[in-house]
Each structure stands twice: as C-alpha cells, then as structure tokens.
Amino acid sequence: MANQEDNLFKNVIAHAKEYGFIFPSSEIYDGLSAVYDYGQNGAELKNNIKEYWWKFMTLLHDNIVGIDAAIFMHPTTWKASGHVDAFNDPMIDNKDSKKRYRADQLIEGYIEKLEEKIEKEVEKAAKRFENFDRDMFIATNGRVVEYKKKIDEVNERMKNAMGSGDMVEMKKIIDDLEIADPISGTRNWTEVRQFNLMFSTEIGSLADDANKIYLRPETAQGIFVNFLNVQKTGRMKIPFGIAQIGKAFRNEIVARQFIFRMREFEQMEMQFFVKPGEEGKWYEYWKEKRMRWHQTLGLGAANYRFHDHLNLAHYAKAACDIQFNFPMGFRELEGIHSRSDFDLKSHEKFSGKKLQYFDSEDNQSYVPYVVETSVGLDRMFLSVLANSYKEEKLEDGSDRVVLRIPAPLAPHKVAILPLMKKDGLPEKAAEIMNDLKYDLRCFYEEKDAIGKRYRRQDAIGTPYCITIDHQTLEDNTVTIRDRDTMKQERVHVKDLRSKLIDACSINNLLRKI
C-alpha cells in the first residue's frame, strides 16, 4: 500500500511539472531545496483557491474584513509573539545516514504505527463478527488496550518534554522506544538540539544587531498589530474578524514531501476577535464552518478529519487541525485555535500601547480573545491536485490521465477547439472565444487531432471542451464535451455562456456552503 502511495505521489509531482503547475525553483542552477515556483496553470489554480477562501471570509461574513500587511515588521514584534525565544524545532541527527529529523515527528511516527496496529486488529475482528461493536472491541480487547496505553504514555511524555523544552527527555523517549533511522536502520543518534526557524536579515546599511530584522514566520502578527487600526477605521463591533493571505518564511531544517513543507509558503489566515467567555462558542462555530468550506469542494468527506492537539501552547484554550488524506497519509491542512488574549496582551506589554476594545453595550474596555483559522495555501493546492489526479483505463483499452479539479477551481474553464484549421472554423472559434473570455478563462488550440487535444485538456483539468465543426456554420450549435464523463452534447452558441458560468462559478460553489 505504501508503495502505491509513493508511486502516486511521484506521478503527481512529475505531472505537476510536465503540465505547467509547479517547477523546482531556479532549476537551471540545479534548484534550491524546498523552494518551488508555480507555473502558468499552477498560478491560475492557486489564485482560484485564494478567491474561494477570500470570498468565503469577506463576502459571506459582514463582520470580517481583509488586510495585506507587510512582510517586514519591527523586530520587537517577534519578541512579543515569542518567536525569537521559542520558535524552535527539536532536531536530531543519525550519525550513520547523516540525515536530520525532527525528534517530535520521529516519536509521532512511532505512535502512528501503533494506531495502524489497532486498526488492523479492528479490521480483523470486524470480519469475524457479524454485529461488530467497534467501541466495545477497542475498550476490551487486551492487545488493543495495551497499544492504547502505550500511545497515551508516549504522548504524555512527549507533551511534558516539549512543554518544558527538555531535550534530554526527548532523546530518552527516542532511545526507550528503540526508534531507528528509516534510512540506515540504526539507532546511532546525536543529542536532540533546538533550532530557531526564523530567517534574519539586516535593514539599512549597517550589518549589526540594532538593524536585525526577520522575514515573518507567520502572517498572524500583521493582523494583531493592526487590530485597533482596522477596528477604528472600519467601526467594527465585536465579534469581528480580520483576514489575510500572504507569504511566510521558515528555515525548515527538514523540508520534504514536495510543496507540503517549504521554506517560502503562503497562508490564508483569519483572526476572529470575541468577547472573553465566548471563545468556546466561536471555536466550535469556526470548526464547523471551515470543515464545510473544505467538504463543499467535493474531494470526498472521508478525506477530512479533525485532530485535537495534545500539546497545547500555554496560552491556548483549545486547538485542532483539519487533516486531509494526502498521498502520504492524513496530515495537517488547516489549524483552528482558541488563542485567548495572549497575542494582544503581549503586544500591549512590549509596545506600551493599549490594544483594547470599548464595548458600548457593557460600558467597559477589555482585550478581546481570539479564535484563529489558518490554512496553508500550498497544502490546499496539494490536496486539490493530488486528489484530482486519476489514471484511467478507458472502454476502448486506451489510457488517460485526468485532473478532476473542481470546475470552479480549474485553471481553464473551457477549451475552444476548431475541428480543422480551415473552412472558416478558426474564425468562428475566435468569435465564440471573444464572447466567452470576459466571463471564463478560455484556452484556444487548433493543432493536432481532436482526440489528442481532448487528452491534453484532461491532463490540465479543463472541465469543458467546445468543438466547432462544419455543422456550427450551418445551425450555430457546438459540441460540448464533459471532462469527467467524456459525454458530448450539442448546444446552441447563445446558451453557452449561461451553461458554463453556472457550472464553473465560484459564487455558486459558495452558495452551497
């Protein structure tokens, strides 16, 4: 099974490059590790995902507004946020393979294997018993109970070690669990050390500590420092949210799995400011709303799940991830966090400025609590691309590779294909394209046999192909081919726009949420 998943992932990565979705950055110079460029089709898909998120936040919620904060911020921002002192990953090296790993991820990998063993026991038992009670089996089966006990013990040890920054204990957990390097197979480990993940640079002409600034490791702080600016200029009343899409940068020591973990990435974040005491209600509200936003895309409800955080930050009230079933298994796609008033209070302390909201109904001022939703745009892109990639055997024995990208997100909505390069067909095709291009992104192609052109459009995920033939010149009808079913129907040119816009509209997708 793992091999199949590895092959799928490799095929998706190769397809992404071959069809203009994602290229290794500065490839002519042999690239740069964990940095990627979005090609012509990738940029369109990425922009469509952004639009789907941005409209959901700012159009569907009259109490959410968007900003675009600068990447560079005053360096004290990162002292206040805790990133200067505590934005670290625990890293460990294997002396034989010379590979570096995150210690917590090695331990989590061990836990995942135990969870897989539990699932295997459940599957075996389910086949044996007709009226199988999963919960009862998990609670009473001796082997499963032992596995669960072990998982709880390891989780508790890791939580305590990470919370106190005890790297000696982290190494001891790895040793006690006899975790081996997946490459060398040995347990010849170094000590666990902390690495700060922020990129630093100098501002101005002098390279000294006084001029040291950072590339932002997250986009949230630009929202927090602008809390009062937005609240006052927008006359916002609590509860309200501030949304932002922007680049962030992390010096990931272990960056891998294609665009899943990169050094330069993009986040879509919304900070929702609420009255203290109401954060629990809004946390549950945003969990439900964000899950519906994801599932409305139609990538399969079973591919999403909530995963509660075991290791909460000291200021957090609650935190969970929406995980997606990527080719490498369930991984974090979006984080939803109840952050209390930690961020605003910390910025108050470091800046000496009051960051409070005056509640006219209660006639009191307070620092709001915050519920955050943060989705990685690149991970969102990968979830759509990997899930949409299909290798199909057709009835006539031939093969095709198709990207079943949801139509509203597809880079091109429609391909305009004159059957031949003569007899006035290209001119008629151009006329149709000139009419549609203001509402839909169109792709024009007249080279090669029509079958080959269909295959190329399948490969980039174009949901509809319009073929202009000699009959078009007679009765002004065209053939529309559906990417997913490959069925064709004859449609009058005057009906094209409404039919296609209806099927490809992001706004219609939003109406379903």
Automatic annotation (TrEMBL):
Substrate binds at residues 102, 218, 265-269, 372-376. It catalyses: tRNA(Gly) + glycine + ATP = glycyl-tRNA(Gly) + AMP + diphosphate. This is Glycine--tRNA ligase. Homodimer. GO terms for biological process: diadenosine tetraphosphate biosynthetic process; glycyl-tRNA aminoacylation. Residues 177-418 form the Aminoacyl-transfer RNA synthetases class-II family profile domain. Residues 111-164 form a coiled coil. Its EC number is 6.1.1.14. Belongs to the class-II aminoacyl-tRNA synthetase family. GO terms for cellular component: cytoplasm; extracellular exosome; microvesicle. HAMAP family: Gly_tRNA_synth_B. The keyword Ligase applies. Gene3D superfamilies: Anticodon-binding domain, Bira Bifunctional Protein, Domain 2. GO terms for molecular function: ATP binding; bis(5'-nucleosyl)-tetraphosphatase (asymmetrical) activity; glycine-tRNA ligase activity. ATP binds at residues 250-252, 260-265, 332-333, 376-379. SUPFAM superfamilies: Class II aaRS ABD-related, Class II aaRS and biotin synthetases. Keywords: Aminoacyl-tRNA synthetase, ATP-binding, Coiled coil, Cytoplasm, Ligase, Nucleotide-binding, Protein biosynthesis. Catalyzes the attachment of glycine to tRNA(Gly). It is found in: Cytoplasm.
